[in-house]
Every structure is written in structure tokens, then in C-alpha cells.
Amino acid sequence: MNSAETPLHKVRGMGSSHSGTGHFWHERVTSVALIPLSLWFGYVMLGLAGTSEVTALQFLAHPWNAILMGGFVAFSLWHAYLGLQVVVDDYIHTPGTKIFLMLAIRFSVIAITATCIFAIVRIAAL
């Protein structure tokens, strides 16, 4: 059975898309990082349920809680970006639409991440 891959691509581990396994590993790393962060986030949300906004702000004012919340936000949005990229690559076949959607998704993820991190830092700095 002949393969369309060149010997160099076989050595580098790249398939026909020329992207290799980097995207696959990024998805796996973010999902593994999200396991403990999601458990922590769920525990925190259950603990803060029914409390006041002041209590939640005081909770996020502690450096470790702010760092963990920032990590949760960043890894969640990065993981979502990687997943949406796969959806666009698989189901959108028009090149112009694909480029527009990828740029819109990337801009949105960057804007949301920056806004969330800025808010967390601002709360932690109070």
C-alpha cells in the first residue's frame, strides 16, 4: 500500500495536513490541566453558593485563588479555541468563510481571556 507522504513527512510525523500531532497534544494537555482546575472550580462554586458578592471578591483577592482562577479561565478558553478550530476545519469548506471564522474565533478568545485576566488581577490587587 503506497502512501502519499514523503519520507521526510514520515520522519517528522506530519500527515497530509502538514501540522503533525501538535494540535492533538495541545488538546490533550489542556484537557489534563482542566481536570484538577475544574474540580477546584466546582468545589469553589459550591462553597460560594448563597454567599454575597463581597465574599466572592474576598475569595478571589487571595493570590492562590486568583492564580487558579486565571489558570482555569486561560486553559478553558484555549481548549475551547482548539475545539472550535477542529469544528471549523472539518465542517466549513469555503476558504473565505473558514478564514473569517478562524479570525473571529481567535479574536474573541483573546479578547475574553484578556478581559477575564484583567478582572481577576484587578480584584486581586484590591
Counted by DSSP, the helix tally is 5
How many E-type strands?
A: 0
The percentage helix is over 70%
Q: How widely separated are the two ends? A: 65 Å
Mean pLDDT: 89
Question: In angstroms, what is the radius of gyration?
Answer: 20 Å
Described by strand count, sense and barrel closure, the largest sheet is: none
**Net shape:** elongated
CATH class descriptor: Mainly Alpha
At CATH level 2, the architecture is: Up-down Bundle
Could you describe the 3D structure shown?
The protein has 126 residues and is mainly alpha-helical. It has a single domain (35-125), classed as 3 helical TM bundles of succinate and fumarate reductases. Helix content is 81%, strand content 0%. Helix 3 (53-61) crosses helix 5. The longest helix has 31 residues, at 95-125. It starts with 6 loop residues before the first helix and ends with a helix. 4% of the residues are buried.
Features of this protein?
5 helices, 126 residues, 3 helical TM bundles of succinate and fumarate reductases, mainly alpha, single chain
What's the SSE blueprint?
Layout: H1 7-12, H2 22-48, H3 53-61, H4 63-91, H5 95-125
Helix pairs in contact: 2-4, 3-5, 4-5
Summarize the structure.
This protein has 126 residues and is mostly helical.
